[in-house]
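Appendix B. One record, verbatim.
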Amino acid sequence: MTIQNKLTLQFALIAASILLTAALFIYILSAGFRQEEFYDRLSQKARSTARLLIEVNEVDHDLLKIIDRNTISLPSEQTIIYNYLNEEIYNSNETVDMLFDETLLDEIRIRQEVRFHRGTKEFLGLLYTDQYNRFVVIASAVDVYGLRKLDYLKLVLLAVFGGSMVLVIGGGWVFARQALKPMAQVIDQVDQISANNLHARVAEGNGQDEIAKLSQTFNKMLGRVESAFLTQKSFVSNASHELRTPLTAITGQIEVSLLKKRNVEEYQQVLQSVLEDIRQLTHLTNGLLELAQLNPQENHLSFSSIRLDELLLQARFELLQRKPHYKISIEYLHFPEEEEGLFIQGNEPLLKSAFINILDNACKFSGGKPVEATLFFEPKEAALTIIDHGIGIQEEDMERILQPLYRASNAITFQGYGLGLSLAHKIMELHRVSMKMQSQFGSGTQVILKFPVKILPLMPV
Protein backbone atom coordinates (compact mmCIF):
# COMPACT_ATOMS: atom_id res chain seq x y z
CA MET A 1 0.00 0.00 0.00
CA THR A 2 1.35 3.42 -0.96
CA ILE A 3 1.87 6.18 1.60
CA GLN A 4 -0.85 8.20 -0.12
CA ASN A 5 -3.39 5.40 0.33
CA LYS A 6 -2.24 4.84 3.92
CA LEU A 7 -2.68 8.53 4.75
CA THR A 8 -6.11 8.53 3.11
CA LEU A 9 -7.15 5.43 5.07
CA GLN A 10 -5.83 6.79 8.36
CA PHE A 11 -7.50 10.14 7.75
CA ALA A 12 -10.79 8.36 6.95
CA LEU A 13 -10.56 6.16 10.07
CA ILE A 14 -9.90 9.15 12.32
CA ALA A 15 -12.78 11.11 10.79
CA ALA A 16 -15.07 8.06 10.98
CA SER A 17 -14.24 7.58 14.65
CA ILE A 18 -14.98 11.23 15.43
CA LEU A 19 -18.21 11.28 13.42
CA LEU A 20 -19.42 7.96 14.83
CA THR A 21 -18.66 9.07 18.39
CA ALA A 22 -20.50 12.35 17.83
CA ALA A 23 -23.49 10.55 16.26
CA LEU A 24 -23.74 8.06 19.11
CA PHE A 25 -23.45 10.88 21.64
CA ILE A 26 -26.24 12.84 19.94
CA TYR A 27 -28.48 9.77 19.65
CA ILE A 28 -27.96 8.71 23.28
CA LEU A 29 -28.67 12.22 24.56
CA SER A 30 -31.78 12.50 22.35
CA ALA A 31 -33.06 9.10 23.48
CA GLY A 32 -32.52 10.06 27.13
CA PHE A 33 -34.28 13.39 26.63
CA ARG A 34 -37.20 11.66 24.88
CA GLN A 35 -37.58 9.18 27.72
CA GLU A 36 -37.42 11.83 30.48
CA GLU A 37 -39.89 14.04 28.67
CA PHE A 38 -42.32 11.14 28.12
CA TYR A 39 -42.15 9.98 31.75
CA ASP A 40 -42.77 13.57 32.88
CA ARG A 41 -45.96 13.58 30.84
CA LEU A 42 -46.99 10.21 32.32
CA SER A 43 -46.28 11.55 35.81
CA GLN A 44 -48.41 14.65 35.21
CA LYS A 45 -51.22 12.51 33.81
CA ALA A 46 -51.08 10.05 36.75
CA ARG A 47 -51.05 12.80 39.40
CA SER A 48 -53.82 14.85 37.80
CA THR A 49 -56.02 11.75 37.44
CA ALA A 50 -55.45 10.71 41.06
CA ARG A 51 -56.06 14.26 42.30
CA LEU A 52 -59.36 14.54 40.47
CA LEU A 53 -60.57 11.15 41.70
CA ILE A 54 -59.38 11.35 45.28
CA GLU A 55 -59.39 15.01 46.26
CA VAL A 56 -62.26 16.51 44.22
CA ASN A 57 -65.57 15.40 45.77
CA GLU A 58 -67.62 16.37 42.73
CA VAL A 59 -65.68 13.95 40.48
CA ASP A 60 -66.49 10.28 40.77
CA HIS A 61 -65.43 7.20 38.83
CA ASP A 62 -67.84 7.65 35.92
CA LEU A 63 -67.29 11.40 35.56
CA LEU A 64 -63.51 10.91 35.49
CA LYS A 65 -63.87 8.45 32.65
CA ILE A 66 -65.91 10.96 30.71
CA ILE A 67 -63.24 13.58 31.33
CA ASP A 68 -60.48 11.19 30.15
CA ARG A 69 -62.37 10.32 26.99
CA ASN A 70 -62.82 13.98 26.11
CA THR A 71 -59.29 15.17 26.74
CA ILE A 72 -56.30 14.79 24.49
CA SER A 73 -54.51 11.65 25.56
CA LEU A 74 -51.35 9.83 24.63
CA PRO A 75 -51.47 6.84 22.23
CA SER A 76 -52.63 3.67 24.04
CA GLU A 77 -52.86 5.66 27.22
CA GLN A 78 -54.15 3.92 30.36
CA THR A 79 -54.27 4.97 34.03
CA ILE A 80 -54.99 2.51 36.85
CA ILE A 81 -55.37 3.42 40.55
CA TYR A 82 -55.12 0.96 43.46
CA ASN A 83 -56.01 1.53 47.12
CA TYR A 84 -53.99 0.35 50.10
CA LEU A 85 -55.68 -3.08 49.87
CA ASN A 86 -54.36 -3.49 46.29
CA GLU A 87 -57.92 -3.15 44.98
CA GLU A 88 -58.40 -1.47 41.62
CA ILE A 89 -60.55 1.62 42.17
CA TYR A 90 -60.10 3.18 38.75
CA ASN A 91 -59.14 2.06 35.21
CA SER A 92 -59.29 4.61 32.42
CA ASN A 93 -59.44 1.90 29.75
CA GLU A 94 -61.09 -1.28 30.94
CA THR A 95 -60.96 -2.79 27.45
CA VAL A 96 -57.25 -3.36 27.96
CA ASP A 97 -56.69 -5.89 30.69
CA MET A 98 -53.47 -5.06 32.55
CA LEU A 99 -52.46 -7.27 35.44
CA PHE A 100 -49.92 -6.22 38.06
CA ASP A 101 -48.87 -8.49 40.89
CA GLU A 102 -48.68 -7.40 44.49
CA THR A 103 -44.88 -7.49 44.43
CA LEU A 104 -44.79 -4.63 41.92
CA LEU A 105 -47.34 -2.63 43.86
CA ASP A 106 -45.35 -3.07 47.07
CA GLU A 107 -42.17 -2.02 45.30
CA ILE A 108 -43.91 1.17 44.09
CA ARG A 109 -45.02 1.95 47.67
CA ILE A 110 -41.45 1.48 48.90
CA ARG A 111 -39.60 3.32 46.11
CA GLN A 112 -42.46 5.83 45.50
CA GLU A 113 -41.72 5.82 41.74
CA VAL A 114 -40.95 2.88 39.42
CA ARG A 115 -40.40 2.93 35.68
CA PHE A 116 -40.68 -0.14 33.46
CA HIS A 117 -41.85 -1.14 30.00
CA ARG A 118 -43.52 -4.02 28.23
CA GLY A 119 -42.67 -4.07 24.57
CA THR A 120 -43.12 -0.56 23.17
CA LYS A 121 -45.43 0.48 26.00
CA GLU A 122 -43.86 2.36 28.89
CA PHE A 123 -45.20 2.37 32.46
CA LEU A 124 -44.79 4.74 35.36
CA GLY A 125 -45.88 3.63 38.83
CA LEU A 126 -45.96 6.20 41.62
CA LEU A 127 -47.29 6.57 45.18
CA TYR A 128 -50.06 9.15 45.74
CA THR A 129 -51.06 10.00 49.33
CA ASP A 130 -53.78 12.06 50.92
CA GLN A 131 -54.68 12.64 54.55
CA TYR A 132 -55.87 9.12 55.19
CA ASN A 133 -54.87 6.72 52.42
CA ARG A 134 -51.96 5.71 50.21
CA PHE A 135 -52.77 5.00 46.58
CA VAL A 136 -50.69 3.41 43.80
CA VAL A 137 -51.15 5.01 40.40
CA ILE A 138 -49.82 3.31 37.26
CA ALA A 139 -49.89 5.33 34.05
CA SER A 140 -48.85 3.84 30.71
CA ALA A 141 -48.73 4.80 27.03
CA VAL A 142 -46.78 4.34 23.81
CA ASP A 143 -44.54 7.27 22.82
CA VAL A 144 -45.30 6.93 19.12
CA TYR A 145 -44.17 10.43 18.21
CA GLY A 146 -41.03 10.37 20.29
CA LEU A 147 -39.94 6.98 18.96
CA ARG A 148 -40.69 8.12 15.43
CA LYS A 149 -38.52 11.17 15.94
CA LEU A 150 -35.71 8.94 17.23
CA ASP A 151 -35.98 6.73 14.15
CA TYR A 152 -35.85 9.79 11.92
CA LEU A 153 -32.87 11.12 13.84
CA LYS A 154 -31.16 7.74 13.36
CA LEU A 155 -31.70 7.93 9.61
CA VAL A 156 -30.43 11.51 9.49
CA LEU A 157 -27.30 10.62 11.45
CA LEU A 158 -26.62 7.60 9.21
CA ALA A 159 -27.10 9.73 6.10
CA VAL A 160 -24.86 12.48 7.45
CA PHE A 161 -22.24 9.88 8.46
CA GLY A 162 -22.27 8.23 5.03
CA GLY A 163 -22.15 11.53 3.13
CA SER A 164 -19.45 12.88 5.40
CA MET A 165 -17.34 9.75 4.90
CA VAL A 166 -17.56 10.14 1.12
CA LEU A 167 -16.38 13.74 1.44
CA VAL A 168 -13.71 12.79 3.98
CA ILE A 169 -12.28 10.00 1.80
CA GLY A 170 -12.26 12.23 -1.26
CA GLY A 171 -10.80 15.16 0.64
CA GLY A 172 -8.28 12.92 2.37
CA TRP A 173 -7.10 11.51 -0.94
CA VAL A 174 -6.66 14.99 -2.39
CA PHE A 175 -4.96 16.18 0.80
CA ALA A 176 -2.56 13.21 0.86
CA ARG A 177 -1.74 13.66 -2.80
CA GLN A 178 -1.08 17.36 -2.32
CA ALA A 179 0.98 16.74 0.83
CA LEU A 180 3.12 14.08 -0.89
CA LYS A 181 3.54 16.03 -4.11
CA PRO A 182 6.94 17.45 -3.03
CA MET A 183 8.06 13.91 -2.15
CA ALA A 184 6.98 12.69 -5.59
CA GLN A 185 9.06 15.49 -7.12
CA VAL A 186 12.03 14.42 -5.00
CA ILE A 187 11.59 10.82 -6.23
CA ASP A 188 11.51 12.00 -9.86
CA GLN A 189 14.64 14.06 -9.35
CA VAL A 190 16.46 11.22 -7.59
CA ASP A 191 15.57 8.83 -10.44
CA GLN A 192 17.41 11.11 -12.83
CA ILE A 193 20.68 11.03 -10.82
CA SER A 194 23.23 8.46 -11.95
CA ALA A 195 26.98 7.93 -11.87
CA ASN A 196 27.31 10.33 -14.81
CA ASN A 197 25.67 13.30 -13.05
CA LEU A 198 26.46 12.93 -9.35
CA HIS A 199 26.88 16.71 -9.26
CA ALA A 200 23.09 17.08 -9.64
CA ARG A 201 21.13 17.98 -6.54
CA VAL A 202 17.52 17.71 -5.38
CA ALA A 203 15.42 20.87 -5.08
CA GLU A 204 15.05 21.83 -1.40
CA GLY A 205 11.71 23.65 -1.69
CA ASN A 206 11.07 26.19 1.06
CA GLY A 207 14.00 24.88 3.12
CA GLN A 208 11.88 24.59 6.29
CA ASP A 209 9.45 21.66 6.20
CA GLU A 210 10.25 17.94 6.57
CA ILE A 211 10.44 17.35 2.80
CA ALA A 212 12.97 20.17 2.51
CA LYS A 213 15.01 18.65 5.35
CA LEU A 214 14.84 15.28 3.58
CA SER A 215 16.11 16.93 0.39
CA GLN A 216 18.89 18.67 2.30
CA THR A 217 19.92 15.39 3.93
CA PHE A 218 19.85 13.64 0.57
CA ASN A 219 21.92 16.41 -1.00
CA LYS A 220 24.49 16.06 1.77
CA MET A 221 24.59 12.32 1.13
CA LEU A 222 25.00 12.97 -2.60
CA GLY A 223 27.88 15.29 -1.79
CA ARG A 224 29.58 12.56 0.23
CA VAL A 225 28.91 9.97 -2.48
CA GLU A 226 30.26 12.30 -5.16
CA SER A 227 33.34 13.03 -3.08
CA ALA A 228 33.91 9.32 -2.43
CA PHE A 229 33.32 8.53 -6.11
CA LEU A 230 35.80 11.18 -7.26
CA THR A 231 38.29 10.03 -4.63
CA GLN A 232 37.95 6.43 -5.75
CA LYS A 233 38.25 7.45 -9.39
CA SER A 234 41.35 9.47 -8.60
CA PHE A 235 42.70 6.61 -6.49
CA VAL A 236 42.23 4.07 -9.30
CA SER A 237 43.79 6.45 -11.81
CA ASN A 238 46.79 7.22 -9.59
CA ALA A 239 47.19 3.58 -8.56
CA SER A 240 47.14 2.48 -12.19
CA HIS A 241 49.75 5.10 -13.03
CA GLU A 242 51.98 4.22 -10.08
CA LEU A 243 51.74 0.49 -10.82
CA ARG A 244 52.34 0.98 -14.52
CA THR A 245 55.60 2.90 -13.98
CA PRO A 246 57.63 0.07 -12.35
CA LEU A 247 56.01 -2.54 -14.59
CA THR A 248 56.92 -0.53 -17.68
CA ALA A 249 60.49 -0.14 -16.41
CA ILE A 250 60.78 -3.88 -15.72
CA THR A 251 59.34 -4.75 -19.14
CA GLY A 252 61.65 -2.29 -20.90
CA GLN A 253 64.78 -3.56 -19.15
CA ILE A 254 63.94 -7.19 -19.91
CA GLU A 255 63.17 -6.41 -23.57
CA VAL A 256 66.44 -4.51 -23.99
CA SER A 257 68.43 -7.31 -22.35
CA LEU A 258 66.89 -9.83 -24.77
CA LEU A 259 67.81 -7.89 -27.91
CA LYS A 260 71.23 -9.55 -27.94
CA LYS A 261 73.39 -11.88 -25.95
CA ARG A 262 75.17 -10.26 -23.03
CA ASN A 263 77.82 -11.26 -20.57
CA VAL A 264 77.19 -12.29 -16.98
CA GLU A 265 77.94 -8.87 -15.51
CA GLU A 266 75.44 -7.14 -17.81
CA TYR A 267 72.75 -9.68 -16.93
CA GLN A 268 73.51 -9.15 -13.24
CA GLN A 269 73.10 -5.38 -13.65
CA VAL A 270 69.75 -5.88 -15.40
CA LEU A 271 68.55 -8.28 -12.72
CA GLN A 272 69.68 -5.90 -9.98
CA SER A 273 67.74 -3.04 -11.57
CA VAL A 274 64.69 -5.25 -12.08
CA LEU A 275 64.89 -6.40 -8.44
CA GLU A 276 64.89 -2.78 -7.27
CA ASP A 277 61.80 -2.04 -9.36
CA ILE A 278 60.08 -5.15 -8.00
CA ARG A 279 60.85 -4.04 -4.44
CA GLN A 280 59.29 -0.65 -5.15
CA LEU A 281 56.28 -2.39 -6.68
CA THR A 282 55.99 -4.65 -3.62
CA HIS A 283 56.23 -1.65 -1.30
CA LEU A 284 53.50 0.13 -3.26
CA THR A 285 51.26 -2.96 -3.30
CA ASN A 286 51.66 -3.51 0.45
CA GLY A 287 50.79 0.11 1.08
CA LEU A 288 47.65 -0.17 -1.02
CA LEU A 289 46.62 -3.37 0.78
CA GLU A 290 47.14 -1.79 4.20
CA LEU A 291 45.11 1.22 3.17
CA ALA A 292 42.27 -0.95 1.86
CA GLN A 293 42.15 -3.02 5.06
CA LEU A 294 41.74 0.02 7.33
CA ASN A 295 38.01 0.68 7.55
CA PRO A 296 36.82 3.04 10.31
CA GLN A 297 33.30 1.54 10.11
CA GLU A 298 34.52 -2.03 10.68
CA ASN A 299 36.97 -1.80 13.52
CA HIS A 300 37.87 -5.24 14.78
CA LEU A 301 41.30 -4.31 16.17
CA SER A 302 42.51 -5.20 19.64
CA PHE A 303 43.37 -2.15 21.76
CA SER A 304 45.65 -1.98 24.77
CA SER A 305 47.22 0.65 27.01
CA ILE A 306 50.13 2.39 25.26
CA ARG A 307 52.53 4.88 26.76
CA LEU A 308 52.51 7.75 24.29
CA ASP A 309 56.02 9.15 24.90
CA GLU A 310 57.67 5.73 24.57
CA LEU A 311 55.75 4.98 21.38
CA LEU A 312 57.02 8.23 19.84
CA LEU A 313 60.62 7.35 20.82
CA GLN A 314 60.28 3.87 19.28
CA ALA A 315 58.94 5.33 16.03
CA ARG A 316 61.83 7.82 15.87
CA PHE A 317 64.37 5.05 16.62
CA GLU A 318 63.09 2.70 13.91
CA LEU A 319 62.88 5.47 11.33
CA LEU A 320 66.48 6.61 12.05
CA GLN A 321 67.67 3.01 11.72
CA ARG A 322 66.28 2.91 8.19
CA LYS A 323 67.33 6.43 7.25
CA PRO A 324 70.17 7.64 9.51
CA HIS A 325 70.51 10.97 7.68
CA TYR A 326 67.17 12.19 9.06
CA LYS A 327 67.21 14.76 11.88
CA ILE A 328 64.37 14.50 14.41
CA SER A 329 64.17 16.25 17.78
CA ILE A 330 61.58 15.45 20.45
CA GLU A 331 60.38 17.78 23.21
CA TYR A 332 57.96 16.99 26.06
CA LEU A 333 55.83 19.64 27.78
CA HIS A 334 53.64 19.51 30.92
CA PHE A 335 54.05 15.90 31.97
CA PRO A 336 51.20 14.67 34.22
CA GLU A 337 52.02 14.02 37.86
CA GLU A 338 50.86 10.40 37.58
CA GLU A 339 52.31 7.98 35.05
CA GLU A 340 48.81 6.82 34.08
CA GLY A 341 48.29 10.15 32.35
CA LEU A 342 50.85 9.13 29.71
CA PHE A 343 48.79 6.16 28.53
CA ILE A 344 46.21 5.98 25.76
CA GLN A 345 44.10 3.13 24.39
CA GLY A 346 45.07 1.93 20.92
CA ASN A 347 46.71 -0.61 18.66
CA GLU A 348 50.47 -0.20 19.12
CA PRO A 349 51.71 -1.48 15.69
CA LEU A 350 49.25 0.73 13.79
CA LEU A 351 49.99 3.87 15.83
CA LYS A 352 53.71 3.30 15.49
CA SER A 353 53.29 2.91 11.71
CA ALA A 354 51.32 6.17 11.59
CA PHE A 355 54.01 8.03 13.59
CA ILE A 356 56.75 6.66 11.31
CA ASN A 357 54.86 7.67 8.17
CA ILE A 358 54.23 11.23 9.43
CA LEU A 359 57.85 11.65 10.61
CA ASP A 360 59.18 10.14 7.35
CA ASN A 361 57.00 12.47 5.30
CA ALA A 362 58.15 15.50 7.31
CA CYS A 363 61.84 14.57 7.00
CA LYS A 364 61.52 13.81 3.28
CA PHE A 365 60.25 17.28 2.44
CA SER A 366 62.27 19.24 5.01
CA GLY A 367 65.29 19.64 2.71
CA GLY A 368 67.69 18.26 5.30
CA LYS A 369 66.48 20.60 8.04
CA PRO A 370 65.61 19.14 11.48
CA VAL A 371 62.04 18.01 12.16
CA GLU A 372 60.59 19.05 15.53
CA ALA A 373 58.17 16.75 17.39
CA THR A 374 56.53 18.19 20.52
CA LEU A 375 54.37 16.12 22.88
CA PHE A 376 52.17 18.35 25.03
CA PHE A 377 49.93 16.99 27.83
CA GLU A 378 46.71 18.77 28.83
CA PRO A 379 44.07 17.78 31.43
CA LYS A 380 41.82 16.00 28.92
CA GLU A 381 44.06 15.26 25.97
CA ALA A 382 47.61 14.94 24.71
CA ALA A 383 48.72 16.83 21.61
CA LEU A 384 51.56 15.75 19.33
CA THR A 385 52.83 18.43 16.95
CA ILE A 386 55.29 17.53 14.16
CA ILE A 387 56.81 20.51 12.34
CA ASP A 388 59.12 20.60 9.35
CA HIS A 389 60.68 23.65 7.68
CA GLY A 390 60.63 22.33 4.15
CA ILE A 391 58.83 23.06 0.90
CA GLY A 392 55.31 23.33 2.37
CA ILE A 393 52.05 22.63 0.61
CA GLN A 394 50.14 24.93 -1.71
CA GLU A 395 46.66 25.97 -0.63
CA GLU A 396 44.92 24.23 -3.55
CA ASP A 397 46.62 20.94 -2.59
CA MET A 398 45.66 21.04 1.11
CA GLU A 399 42.12 19.74 0.56
CA ARG A 400 43.35 16.60 -1.24
CA ILE A 401 46.68 15.96 0.44
CA LEU A 402 45.20 13.18 2.63
CA GLN A 403 43.70 11.31 -0.32
CA PRO A 404 45.48 8.05 -1.27
CA LEU A 405 48.14 8.37 -3.99
CA TYR A 406 47.66 12.13 -4.24
CA ARG A 407 50.87 14.10 -4.36
CA ALA A 408 51.21 17.86 -4.18
CA SER A 409 52.36 19.62 -7.31
CA ASN A 410 55.70 20.61 -5.70
CA ALA A 411 56.40 17.05 -4.48
CA ILE A 412 56.49 15.25 -7.82
CA THR A 413 60.28 15.18 -7.89
CA PHE A 414 60.48 13.45 -4.49
CA GLN A 415 60.43 9.67 -4.23
CA GLY A 416 57.21 8.20 -2.90
CA TYR A 417 53.68 7.21 -3.78
CA GLY A 418 51.48 9.50 -1.68
CA LEU A 419 50.36 6.73 0.69
CA GLY A 420 52.05 7.67 3.98
CA LEU A 421 49.76 10.51 5.10
CA SER A 422 46.64 8.70 3.83
CA LEU A 423 47.57 5.60 5.82
CA ALA A 424 48.30 7.66 8.94
CA HIS A 425 44.99 9.50 8.60
CA LYS A 426 43.05 6.23 8.36
CA ILE A 427 44.82 4.90 11.45
CA MET A 428 43.96 8.06 13.39
CA GLU A 429 40.32 7.74 12.35
CA LEU A 430 40.30 4.20 13.74
CA HIS A 431 41.56 5.54 17.07
CA ARG A 432 39.24 8.60 17.02
CA VAL A 433 42.28 10.85 17.07
CA SER A 434 41.99 14.33 15.60
CA MET A 435 44.52 14.93 12.78
CA LYS A 436 44.92 18.42 11.35
CA MET A 437 47.47 19.88 8.94
CA GLN A 438 48.63 23.47 8.58
CA SER A 439 51.13 24.59 5.96
CA GLN A 440 52.68 27.66 4.41
CA PHE A 441 54.03 27.21 0.93
CA GLY A 442 57.82 27.40 0.96
CA SER A 443 58.07 27.59 4.78
CA GLY A 444 57.05 24.14 6.04
CA THR A 445 54.16 22.04 7.31
CA GLN A 446 52.71 21.31 10.74
CA VAL A 447 50.77 18.13 11.65
CA ILE A 448 48.74 18.21 14.88
CA LEU A 449 47.45 15.04 16.53
CA LYS A 450 45.20 15.14 19.61
CA PHE A 451 44.76 12.00 21.76
CA PRO A 452 42.17 11.60 24.56
CA VAL A 453 43.83 10.73 27.90
CA LYS A 454 42.75 10.44 31.55
CA ILE A 455 42.00 13.65 33.47
CA LEU A 456 45.02 14.12 35.74
CA PRO A 457 46.69 17.11 37.40
CA LEU A 458 49.62 18.56 35.46
CA MET A 459 53.05 19.65 36.58
CA PRO A 460 55.34 21.88 34.53
CA VAL A 461 58.71 20.54 33.35
